[in-house]
UniProtKB/TrEMBL annotation:
InterPro entries according to UniProt: PTrfase/Anion_transptr (IPR016152), PTS_EIIA_type-2_dom (IPR002178), PTS_SugarTrans_NitroReg (IPR051541)
Organism the protein comes from: Cutibacterium modestum
PTS EIIA type-2 domain span: 3-149
Protein name: PTS EIIA type-2 domain-containing protein
Length: 155
């Protein structure tokens, strides 16, 4: 089973102009839904500095910001669609900045789910048809695409 435990899917449309603003808006959204601990914002900011999450897929760049499970109250996934691009440092070359308009935030409470969840998100974005759905699709289309990508598979 690749990943289990995403009980909630949130689609957030934000208007951040930089990464700090993006993180603050995501934190506000998740805090309002009681999904994260008060430590979430500082944890995601510190982790992004140490371990950048920008990924360049050639046709598009996205980011997968995440934190350790102790900062998450309720498991889920947040699909964050920003009205403008913000810069994330590349995971495979932190000296390189990537323009990112879509970020996907795995929220895990079980540490054993984190690696599989990240892999499932990366596999989802490798399918070029997923990006426009996640960035511009309606709630139902986004839920369907994420649900299919994260659904447990038979071993």
């Amino acid at each position: 089973m690749p990943w289990k435990g995403a009980s909630r899917l949130i689609v957030a449309n934000v208007t951040a102009t930089n990464q700090n603003d993006l993180f603050a808006q995501v934190n506000d959204c998740l805090t309002a839904d009681n999904m994260v601990e008060p430590t979430f914002l500082s944890a995601v900011t510190a982790r992004e500095m140490r371990f950048p999450t920008g990924l360049d897929f050639g046709y598009v760049s996205i980011a997968i910001p995440h934190v350790d499970p102790e900062h998450v109250i309720s498991p889920g996934v947040l699909v964050c669609r920003n009205s403008t691009s913000t810069t994330f440092r590349a995971m495979d070359g932190p000296e390189r900045g990537l323009d990112v308009q879509l970020s996907i935030w795995p929220l895990v409470t079980d540490p054993s789910n984190q690696v599989d969840m990240l892999g499932a998100v990366i596999t989802l974005i490798q399918d070029e048809s997923s990006y426009p759905v996640l960035l511009h699709g309606d709630q139902t289309e986004v839920v369907d695409r994420i649900s299919c990508a994260l659904a447990p598979t038979e071993d």
